[in-house]
Protein backbone atom coordinates (compact mmCIF):
# COMPACT_ATOMS: atom_id res chain seq x y z
CA UNK A 1 0.00 0.00 0.00
CA UNK A 2 1.32 3.44 -0.91
CA UNK A 3 0.30 6.68 0.74
CA UNK A 4 1.24 10.17 -0.38
CA UNK A 5 1.03 13.07 2.05
CA UNK A 6 -0.68 16.24 0.84
CA UNK A 7 -1.75 19.53 2.38
CA UNK A 8 -5.37 18.54 1.87
CA UNK A 9 -7.07 18.35 5.28
CA UNK A 10 -10.34 16.78 4.23
CA UNK A 11 -11.45 13.90 6.47
CA UNK A 12 -10.74 11.29 3.83
CA UNK A 13 -7.22 12.53 3.12
CA UNK A 14 -6.43 12.97 6.84
CA UNK A 15 -7.54 9.42 7.57
CA UNK A 16 -5.43 8.19 4.68
CA UNK A 17 -2.37 10.03 5.98
CA UNK A 18 -2.80 8.65 9.52
CA UNK A 19 -3.31 5.14 8.19
CA UNK A 20 -0.21 5.44 6.08
CA UNK A 21 1.79 6.72 9.05
CA UNK A 22 0.76 3.75 11.19
CA UNK A 23 1.61 1.35 8.39
CA UNK A 24 5.00 3.00 8.05
CA UNK A 25 5.72 2.75 11.79
CA UNK A 26 4.53 -0.85 11.79
CA UNK A 27 7.08 -1.61 9.13
CA UNK A 28 9.77 -0.18 11.42
CA UNK A 29 8.64 -2.05 14.51
CA UNK A 30 11.78 -4.18 14.64
CA UNK A 31 13.94 -1.07 14.85
CA UNK A 32 11.64 0.44 17.48
CA UNK A 33 11.67 -2.72 19.62
CA UNK A 34 15.44 -3.06 19.28
CA UNK A 35 16.01 0.58 20.30
CA UNK A 36 13.64 0.22 23.25
CA UNK A 37 15.55 -2.84 24.45
CA UNK A 38 18.88 -1.05 24.10
CA UNK A 39 17.62 1.92 26.13
CA UNK A 40 16.05 -0.42 28.70
CA UNK A 41 19.42 -2.11 29.22
CA UNK A 42 20.98 1.36 29.47
CA UNK A 43 18.46 2.33 32.15
CA UNK A 44 19.24 -0.86 34.08
CA UNK A 45 22.98 -0.17 33.88
CA UNK A 46 22.39 3.43 34.99
CA UNK A 47 20.50 2.19 38.05
CA UNK A 48 23.62 0.26 39.10
CA UNK A 49 26.16 3.04 38.55
CA UNK A 50 24.05 6.00 39.73
CA UNK A 51 25.13 7.20 43.16
CA UNK A 52 22.32 7.33 45.70
CA UNK A 53 21.42 10.58 47.44
CA UNK A 54 21.44 10.80 51.24
CA UNK A 55 19.10 12.95 53.30
CA UNK A 56 20.07 14.37 56.70
CA UNK A 57 17.06 15.62 58.64
CA UNK A 58 16.79 17.59 61.87
CA UNK A 59 13.61 18.55 63.65
CA UNK A 60 12.97 20.74 66.66
CA UNK A 61 10.21 22.47 68.57
CA UNK A 62 10.30 26.25 68.78
CA UNK A 63 8.64 27.76 71.85
CA UNK A 64 8.59 31.40 70.85
CA UNK A 65 6.87 32.49 74.08
CA UNK A 66 9.00 30.76 76.68
CA UNK A 67 7.82 33.05 79.43
CA UNK A 68 4.11 32.37 79.00
CA UNK A 69 4.13 30.41 82.24
CA UNK A 70 5.67 33.24 84.26
CA UNK A 71 2.35 34.72 85.32
CA UNK A 72 3.39 35.31 88.94
CA UNK A 73 6.60 37.09 87.95
CA UNK A 74 4.73 39.20 85.43
CA UNK A 75 2.25 40.23 88.12
CA UNK A 76 5.06 41.24 90.45
CA UNK A 77 6.68 43.21 87.66
CA UNK A 78 3.39 44.97 86.93
CA UNK A 79 3.09 46.03 90.59
CA UNK A 80 6.59 47.48 90.33
CA UNK A 81 5.61 49.40 87.22
CA UNK A 82 7.69 47.25 84.84
CA UNK A 83 6.12 45.73 81.72
CA UNK A 84 7.31 42.29 80.65
CA UNK A 85 5.53 42.32 77.28
CA UNK A 86 8.14 42.18 74.55
CA UNK A 87 5.94 41.93 71.48
CA UNK A 88 6.90 38.36 70.64
CA UNK A 89 5.16 38.51 67.28
CA UNK A 90 8.12 40.27 65.67
CA UNK A 91 10.12 37.06 65.34
CA UNK A 92 8.03 33.93 64.95
CA UNK A 93 8.43 30.43 63.56
CA UNK A 94 7.91 31.80 60.05
CA UNK A 95 10.89 34.10 60.50
CA UNK A 96 13.24 31.30 61.47
CA UNK A 97 12.20 29.38 58.34
CA UNK A 98 13.28 32.36 56.23
CA UNK A 99 16.56 32.60 58.13
CA UNK A 100 17.44 29.10 56.91
CA UNK A 101 17.33 30.38 53.33
CA UNK A 102 19.44 33.45 54.06
CA UNK A 103 22.47 33.82 51.79
CA UNK A 104 24.66 35.07 54.64
CA UNK A 105 23.89 32.14 56.93
CA UNK A 106 24.31 29.58 54.15
CA UNK A 107 27.66 31.12 53.18
CA UNK A 108 28.84 31.21 56.79
CA UNK A 109 27.87 27.56 57.17
CA UNK A 110 29.71 26.56 54.00
CA UNK A 111 32.81 28.38 55.27
CA UNK A 112 32.74 26.42 58.55
CA UNK A 113 35.21 23.63 59.22
CA UNK A 114 33.79 20.20 59.99
CA UNK A 115 35.30 16.84 60.86
CA UNK A 116 35.40 14.19 58.14
CA UNK A 117 36.98 11.14 59.67
CA UNK A 118 40.39 12.07 61.06
CA UNK A 119 40.60 15.28 59.05
CA UNK A 120 38.73 18.56 58.97
CA UNK A 121 37.94 20.74 55.98
CA UNK A 122 35.68 23.56 54.92
CA UNK A 123 32.20 22.42 54.00
CA UNK A 124 32.44 24.37 50.72
CA UNK A 125 35.57 22.39 49.77
CA UNK A 126 33.82 19.13 50.58
CA UNK A 127 30.78 20.10 48.51
CA UNK A 128 32.85 21.15 45.49
CA UNK A 129 34.82 17.90 45.61
CA UNK A 130 31.57 15.99 44.94
CA UNK A 131 30.46 18.25 42.05
CA UNK A 132 32.51 17.75 38.84
CA UNK A 133 31.51 21.09 37.28
CA UNK A 134 32.63 23.07 40.33
CA UNK A 135 35.63 20.86 41.01
CA UNK A 136 37.06 21.41 37.53
CA UNK A 137 36.43 25.17 37.64
CA UNK A 138 38.03 25.60 41.08
CA UNK A 139 41.06 23.56 40.02
CA UNK A 140 41.44 25.50 36.77
CA UNK A 141 41.14 28.93 38.44
CA UNK A 142 43.13 27.91 41.55
CA UNK A 143 40.34 29.23 43.77
CA UNK A 144 40.89 29.19 47.52
CA UNK A 145 38.06 29.63 50.01
CA UNK A 146 38.49 31.25 53.41
CA UNK A 147 36.15 32.53 56.09
CA UNK A 148 37.91 35.91 55.95
CA UNK A 149 36.09 37.83 53.21
CA UNK A 150 38.99 40.23 52.68
CA UNK A 151 41.21 37.31 51.67
CA UNK A 152 38.82 36.02 48.97
CA UNK A 153 38.76 37.29 45.41
CA UNK A 154 35.65 38.00 43.32
CA UNK A 155 35.84 34.62 41.59
CA UNK A 156 35.65 32.78 44.91
CA UNK A 157 32.71 34.95 45.99
CA UNK A 158 30.94 34.26 42.70
CA UNK A 159 31.39 30.49 43.01
CA UNK A 160 30.27 30.63 46.64
CA UNK A 161 27.14 32.56 45.64
CA UNK A 162 26.26 30.08 42.89
CA UNK A 163 26.77 27.15 45.26
CA UNK A 164 24.43 28.80 47.77
CA UNK A 165 21.76 29.17 45.09
CA UNK A 166 22.25 25.55 44.07
CA UNK A 167 21.95 24.27 47.64
CA UNK A 168 18.92 26.47 48.29
CA UNK A 169 17.20 25.14 45.17
CA UNK A 170 18.17 21.47 45.11
CA UNK A 171 19.51 20.35 48.49
CA UNK A 172 17.81 22.32 51.26
CA UNK A 173 14.23 21.84 52.44
CA UNK A 174 12.74 23.66 55.46
CA UNK A 175 9.18 22.87 56.53
CA UNK A 176 6.96 24.04 59.38
CA UNK A 177 3.96 21.99 60.36
CA UNK A 178 0.75 23.93 59.85
CA UNK A 179 -0.32 25.84 62.97
CA UNK A 180 2.50 24.23 64.95
CA UNK A 181 6.03 25.17 65.84
CA UNK A 182 7.68 21.89 64.85
CA UNK A 183 10.27 22.67 62.17
CA UNK A 184 12.15 20.16 60.04
CA UNK A 185 15.37 20.90 58.13
CA UNK A 186 16.51 18.45 55.44
CA UNK A 187 19.75 18.46 53.45
CA UNK A 188 20.14 16.09 50.50
CA UNK A 189 23.51 15.23 48.96
CA UNK A 190 25.32 12.35 47.32
CA UNK A 191 28.02 12.85 49.98
CA UNK A 192 26.62 11.32 53.17
CA UNK A 193 29.09 13.02 55.52
CA UNK A 194 28.56 16.42 53.89
CA UNK A 195 24.79 16.15 54.27
CA UNK A 196 25.12 15.30 57.97
CA UNK A 197 27.71 17.96 58.84
CA UNK A 198 26.08 20.71 56.79
CA UNK A 199 22.71 20.02 58.41
CA UNK A 200 24.15 20.13 61.93
CA UNK A 201 26.17 23.30 61.32
CA UNK A 202 23.29 25.13 59.63
CA UNK A 203 20.79 24.26 62.36
CA UNK A 204 23.25 25.36 65.05
CA UNK A 205 24.10 28.66 63.32
CA UNK A 206 20.51 29.65 62.51
CA UNK A 207 19.04 28.71 65.88
CA UNK A 208 21.80 30.53 67.77
CA UNK A 209 21.25 33.67 65.67
CA UNK A 210 17.49 33.47 66.17
CA UNK A 211 17.87 33.28 69.95
CA UNK A 212 20.37 36.15 69.88
CA UNK A 213 18.07 38.39 67.80
CA UNK A 214 15.01 37.51 69.84
CA UNK A 215 16.60 38.33 73.20
CA UNK A 216 19.08 41.04 72.14
CA UNK A 217 17.15 43.99 73.62
CA UNK A 218 16.51 42.28 76.94
CA UNK A 219 20.13 41.12 77.16
CA UNK A 220 21.33 44.68 76.54
CA UNK A 221 19.05 45.96 79.33
CA UNK A 222 20.47 43.40 81.73
CA UNK A 223 24.01 44.37 80.76
CA UNK A 224 23.37 48.09 81.32
CA UNK A 225 21.61 47.55 84.64
CA UNK A 226 24.34 45.20 85.82
CA UNK A 227 26.99 47.80 85.01
CA UNK A 228 25.04 50.53 86.83
CA UNK A 229 24.41 48.29 89.83
CA UNK A 230 28.11 47.42 90.13
CA UNK A 231 29.05 51.10 89.90
CA UNK A 232 26.59 52.13 92.62
CA UNK A 233 27.73 49.24 94.80
CA UNK A 234 31.32 50.43 94.60
CA UNK A 235 30.19 53.94 95.51
CA UNK A 236 28.10 52.55 98.38
CA UNK A 237 31.08 50.67 99.76
CA UNK A 238 33.14 53.84 99.59
CA UNK A 239 30.37 55.74 101.42
CA UNK A 240 30.38 53.16 104.19
CA UNK A 241 34.12 53.49 104.57
CA UNK A 242 33.84 57.29 104.58
CA UNK A 243 31.07 57.33 107.20
CA UNK A 244 33.08 55.06 109.48
CA UNK A 245 36.21 57.16 108.99
CA UNK A 246 34.28 60.38 109.81
CA UNK A 247 33.13 58.88 113.10
CA UNK A 248 36.63 57.70 113.89
CA UNK A 249 37.98 61.23 113.42
CA UNK A 250 35.97 62.56 116.37
CA UNK A 251 35.24 59.56 118.57
CA UNK A 252 34.34 61.68 121.62
CA UNK A 253 32.86 64.77 120.01
CA UNK A 254 31.58 67.52 122.30
CA UNK A 255 27.77 67.43 122.08
CA UNK A 256 27.71 71.23 122.23
CA UNK A 257 29.84 71.57 119.09
CA UNK A 258 27.40 70.47 116.33
CA UNK A 259 29.85 71.38 113.57
CA UNK A 260 31.93 68.36 114.51
CA UNK A 261 29.02 66.09 113.47
CA UNK A 262 28.61 67.59 110.01
CA UNK A 263 31.19 65.37 108.17
CA UNK A 264 29.75 62.15 109.58
CA UNK A 265 26.17 63.29 108.92
CA UNK A 266 27.07 64.18 105.32
CA UNK A 267 28.64 60.74 104.82
CA UNK A 268 25.59 59.09 106.39
CA UNK A 269 23.25 60.99 104.05
CA UNK A 270 25.27 59.92 101.02
CA UNK A 271 25.24 56.39 102.34
CA UNK A 272 21.45 56.35 102.74
CA UNK A 273 20.88 57.89 99.28
CA UNK A 274 23.14 55.43 97.55
CA UNK A 275 21.64 52.57 99.50
CA UNK A 276 18.17 53.55 98.24
CA UNK A 277 19.48 53.80 94.64
CA UNK A 278 21.23 50.46 94.98
CA UNK A 279 18.06 48.78 96.26
CA UNK A 280 16.05 50.14 93.33
CA UNK A 281 18.70 49.02 90.84
CA UNK A 282 18.77 45.53 92.35
CA UNK A 283 14.99 45.30 91.93
CA UNK A 284 15.13 46.48 88.33
CA UNK A 285 18.04 44.16 87.56
CA UNK A 286 16.17 41.11 88.81
CA UNK A 287 13.08 42.10 86.82
CA UNK A 288 15.26 42.60 83.73
CA UNK A 289 16.70 39.11 84.18
CA UNK A 290 13.18 37.71 84.36
CA UNK A 291 12.30 39.59 81.18
CA UNK A 292 15.39 38.16 79.47
CA UNK A 293 14.36 34.67 80.53
CA UNK A 294 10.89 35.29 79.16
CA UNK A 295 12.09 36.68 75.84
CA UNK A 296 14.63 33.93 75.19
CA UNK A 297 12.91 31.38 72.92
CA UNK A 298 13.22 27.72 73.82
CA UNK A 299 14.42 25.48 70.99
CA UNK A 300 14.09 21.81 71.89
CA UNK A 301 15.70 19.33 69.51
CA UNK A 302 13.59 16.32 68.54
CA UNK A 303 15.70 14.49 65.95
CA UNK A 304 19.28 14.90 64.78
CA UNK A 305 20.91 13.31 61.72
CA UNK A 306 22.69 10.09 62.59
CA UNK A 307 24.70 7.74 60.41
CA UNK A 308 23.74 5.88 58.35
CA UNK A 309 21.48 8.49 56.77
CA UNK A 310 18.31 7.73 54.89
CA UNK A 311 19.27 6.70 51.36
CA UNK A 312 17.31 7.38 48.20
CA UNK A 313 16.18 4.06 46.77
CA UNK A 314 16.96 3.57 43.08
CA UNK A 315 14.37 1.24 41.54
CA UNK A 316 15.96 -0.93 38.85
CA UNK A 317 12.53 -1.78 37.44
CA UNK A 318 11.54 1.87 37.07
CA UNK A 319 14.85 2.79 35.44
CA UNK A 320 14.55 -0.14 33.02
CA UNK A 321 10.96 0.68 32.03
CA UNK A 322 11.70 4.41 31.75
CA UNK A 323 14.72 3.66 29.55
CA UNK A 324 12.70 1.41 27.26
CA UNK A 325 9.88 3.94 26.89
CA UNK A 326 12.37 6.75 26.24
CA UNK A 327 14.10 4.74 23.52
CA UNK A 328 10.82 3.79 21.83
CA UNK A 329 9.55 7.37 21.86
CA UNK A 330 12.80 8.82 20.52
CA UNK A 331 13.13 6.36 17.62
CA UNK A 332 9.44 6.77 16.77
CA UNK A 333 9.80 10.55 16.61
CA UNK A 334 12.86 10.14 14.43
CA UNK A 335 11.00 7.87 11.97
CA UNK A 336 8.06 10.29 11.83
CA UNK A 337 10.35 13.25 11.12
CA UNK A 338 12.23 11.23 8.52
CA UNK A 339 9.01 10.10 6.88
CA UNK A 340 7.40 13.55 6.83
CA UNK A 341 10.33 15.72 5.81
CA UNK A 342 12.74 13.46 3.91
CA UNK A 343 10.49 11.15 1.97
CA UNK A 344 7.76 12.09 -0.42
CA UNK A 345 5.92 8.83 0.04
CA UNK A 346 5.60 6.19 2.75
CA UNK A 347 5.37 2.75 1.35
Automatic annotation (TrEMBL):
Signal peptide: none
Topology with respect to the bilayer: Multi-pass membrane protein
Transmembrane listed as a keyword: yes
InterPro entries (UniProt xref): Bact_polysacc_biosynth/exp, LPS_length_determ_N
Annotated coiled-coil segments of the chain: none
Source taxon at top rank: Bacteria
Localization annotation: Cell membrane
Ranges of residues in domain Polysaccharide chain length determinant N-terminal: 18-109
Annotated TM spans: 31-49, 317-341
Pfam families documented for this protein: Wzz
Primary location: membrane
Keywords: Cell membrane, Membrane, Transmembrane, Transmembrane helix
PANTHER family tied to this protein: FERRIC ENTEROBACTIN TRANSPORT PROTEIN FEPE, TYROSINE-PROTEIN KINASE
Name by which UniProt lists this protein: Wzz/FepE/Etk N-terminal domain-containing protein
Biological classification of the source: Bacteria, Pseudomonadati, Bacteroidota, Sphingobacteriia, Sphingobacteriales
Amino acid sequence: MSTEFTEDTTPGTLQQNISGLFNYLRSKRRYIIFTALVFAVGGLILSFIKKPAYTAESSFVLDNNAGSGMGNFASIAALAGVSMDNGSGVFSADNIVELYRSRTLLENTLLTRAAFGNESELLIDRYIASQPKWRDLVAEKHIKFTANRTQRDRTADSVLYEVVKEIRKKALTVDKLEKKTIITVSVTSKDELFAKNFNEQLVGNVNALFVQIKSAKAAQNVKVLQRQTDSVKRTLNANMQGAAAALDDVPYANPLEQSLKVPSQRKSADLQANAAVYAELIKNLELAKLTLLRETPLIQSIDKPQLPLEKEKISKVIYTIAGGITGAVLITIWFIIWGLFYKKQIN
